[in-house]
Amino acid sequence: MRVTLDTSDNWAELREVADLRRPDRLAVNKAISLSSDGEGRAIIPGSMEDDMATALLPLVITEWSLPYPVPAKRPDALSFLTLEQDDALRAAIVPHLKAIQGVNAPTPTNETPTAPSAS
Fold first, then answer.
1. 111 in a domain, yes or no?
2. Does a structural domain hold residue 116?
3. From the centroid of its chain, how far is CA 64?
4. Of the chain's two ends, which shows fewer C-beta atoms within 10 Å, N or C?
5. 102 backbone φψ class: left, alpha, beta (φ>0; ψ -120 to 50)
6. Cα–Cα–Cα angle for 54, 44, 21, nearest 5°?
């Protein structure tokens, strides 16, 4: 899917959500680090969304019009993004992140989810 990155008509091609695989989930989950305070409450670092996006973007960007290699070939290429470009990519990968987290994961068109059994 093609995403417009900025007002200069730069673009990026992203893998479809349905094309995500288990290694993609593992890579994103590896970027998550949670801890707890002295009372057992979870402490979520402010960088968690950045870390997840940084882990996922090289896996899903297949091409782009920017003047440097895609992040899969040059991971530091993400550091050259303007905030506008970064915002566009982050918005575009929300469905990918939801699928990785198991929220609204795509189901094949020939499958109908069933209710859990009462065992």
1. no
2. no
3. 16
4. C
5. left
6. 40
Half-sphere exposure of 46 (CA within 13 A, CB side): 0
Residue count of the chain: 119
* Predicted model pTM: 0.76
* In a domain? residue 96: yes
Q: Looking at residue 117, what DSSP letter applies?
A: P
What's the pLDDT band for 69 if we cut at 50, 70, 90?
Answer: very high
Beta bridge partners of 43: 35
- What is d(CA 99, CA 104) in angstroms, rounded to the nearest whole number? 6
Please give the Cα distance from 72 to 51 (Å, whole number): 16
Domain that holds residue 89: 2-100
Torsion of CA 18, 53, 27, 106, to 10 degrees: -20
Closest alpha carbon to 12 in 97, 101, 104, 87: 87
Determine the average pLDDT of the residues in 16-41.
87
Q: Is residue 113 part of a domain?
A: no
Cβ-contact 117, 38 below 8 angstroms: no
pLDDT band at residue 39 under the 50/70/90 scheme: confident
